Amino acid sequence: WESKSLPQLPRIVGGEMASPGEFPFQVSLQKDGLFGRSHICGGSIIDQNHVLTAAHCIKNANPGNIFAVLGEYDLAVDSGDEQVIVATELTIHEHYDGQTFTNDVGVLTLLATIVYNDVVQPIDLPEQMELVEEDTMTMTTGWGTTVEGGSVSDILRKVEVPIVSDNDCRLSYGITDIADHMLCAGFPEGGKDACQGDSGGPLFVNGTVYGIVSWGYGCARPDYPGVYTEVAYFVDWISNQLV
């Protein structure tokens, strides 16, 4: 999740704590730095070697510095359930635009095979162009900030938000800012949203991922829903990265 006014990575506002293992497809993408690994973005397990995320999370990164942490719940505590696997390849959409956040989708290829268990499982992709209807209640999850401009949450959080039509979303952001392959979700009154640090994480319904946390104007502001990459437009592209 990037804010158009304050470029930054996104977190869940107005949500609640998840339970351990509740979202076994959730990934913490972490970057290796001087002081060890730190959470930079979310992602979703899509098969035993690949993680789906936002292009803006991995653009200009070196694969050897990016780790997928699976089975993660509390960033501050090592529960023993975590699998930490380094990326060998970071693929972003060839038409990704960092100014407009169009085609904000990317895939990590991992060095080792993910071991599935009770707390580590893949999420389903929709069919190509299987769109989700307006007002559908969806959920998004992540370790992002719980208030706009705040610090990230150590505990995985979740929030439910309804799908907003592209037309209504364009009334908020402007006709040119919301591409067809973007998906908007949020309440008109605001108060619930993804935010910095949630970027790249999933927006999902019943175990199928329909959106990737991408950008917004601030977090959880009235009349400015969160904006997600609409996965249904990119299923063929994603599938081509998995071979």
Question: What is the percentage of strand-forming residues?
Answer: 25-35%
The CATH superfamily of the largest domain is known as Trypsin-like serine proteases
- Spans where pLDDT lies below 50 across 5 or more residues: 5-11
| Outline | globular
**Mind telling me the CATH class of the largest domain?**
Mainly Beta
Counting structural domains, the number is 2
Largest beta sheet: strand ordering: 9-10-11-14-13-12
Q: Structural class of the helix and strand makeup? A: mainly beta
The CATH topology assignment of the largest domain is Thrombin, subunit H
Order of helices and strands: EEEEEHEEEEEHEEEEH
Mean pLDDT: 92
Molecular structure report:
With 243 residues, the protein is mostly beta strands. The chain has 2 domains: 103 residues, Thrombin, subunit H; 97 residues, Trypsin-like serine proteases (Thrombin, subunit H), CATH 2.40.10.10. Helices cover 8% and strands 35% of the residues. The protein contains 3 helices and 14 strands. Strands 9-10-11-14-13-12 form a 6-stranded antiparallel barrel. The protein has a 6-stranded antiparallel beta barrel with strand order 3-4-5-8-7-6. The radius of gyration is 16 Å and the shape is globular. The two termini are 28 Å apart.
